[in-house]
What does this fold into?
Amino acid sequence: MPQVLWQQTLSQLKGRLSATELGCWVQAIHPVEIRERRLYGEVPSVMHLEQIRNRLQGEIAGVLEELLGSGAELVLSVNRLRVQPVVDPRPAAAEATSRYGFESFVIGESNSLAHASAREVANHPGVTYNPLFLYGGVGLGKTHLATAIAQSLAKRPRLRIAMLSAEAFANDLIRALLTGAIDAFRVRVRQLDVLIVDDIQFLAGKERMQEEFFHTFNALHAAGKQIVLVSDQAPRSISNLEERLQSRFESGLTTEIRIPEAPLRLAILASKAKGLGFDLSLEVAQWVASRVVSSVRELEGALHRLVAACRCSRRSLDVGFAREVLRPILRTPPARTVEQVQRIVAERFQLRVEDLVHRARTTRIRLPRQVAMYLARKGTKATYEEIAAGFGGRDHSTIMHAVKCVEARRHEEPEFAVLVDQLAEKLASA
It folds into this structure.
């Protein structure tokens, strides 16, 4: 068995190579088969291949000759679909790895379901949520959770894992088709225990890629292998994606990561500042959290800018200095209007703006109208009286009642909360 031989080889190499050489390069080798005193193996990148050939191949071949006899050698090839746990003893590498683990993921109302489902997949792959489909806007933590799943599962011995982008999947498929190696490509992909694909929306409109991924999905799912997909949109919102793929993507658990709410933004800033060893006052954190609202990535970027400015200037950080430092990167949001809200809500519910404004009381109109009133109150600077005037001259108490109804329903119905948040996000980016 190649695995048994490789374990014996690793045992012998421990006394001959440094911990860095073993952890960074040798342990990334995956043994495949033994033929005629040759051990065939795979590595995850060209860099691994070059480093092993240039620095370590002779030492490894020497051990193989001791075990297999004269003339034994190691024959390596690159398999980009393989993810191997790399144990790098250097503190900086360990720190970088933990940066995208579950431990560093800050949890709030907007991402708690996604975090819990990712944890469940990491603990019980192929059992509960399969596939797991994570979606949300840019910089909200989708790839962080997918990487955390991969890192957690990589600690399990003999588990074959691949995490790659949909673009990388497509490029590898094209390469396999051009070189006549499509059968080998399919074998490599479909023997995986866990497949994690980021930016799955990249497959939209690419019929040949979708065809191959459809069969790959079916093969892995039928075998009980875990599939995790990451996208910037829900499956049904990805245009030019085949319906059969949409239905399969939705067959497990589909969960959204939404724009972080204010308490979560504060918690993220506190966590990141602590990790940087930076003393961030509550007053400054609250100001930053009120100005940088659209993504975790932008929050982190703003914090790094503040830290660098303080350390370079040796000034203490207060709100005035924070405003000065962040002014070049802060976007001044334009004033939203009641009319903008009405257009966005009418479009979502396939109504006319006039339907929301007029006094018709049909069930089909009532809910969209209340949502529009709620968003007008939360997303614009208009007063209750101004909003009431924009909805056909109603009394301001009608607007207050609508806001209370929507808030209550948001707490009771998670799917409704997602809908309202999506409309709020669309209003903010309009």
About this structure: Confidence is low (pLDDT under 50) at residues 82-97.
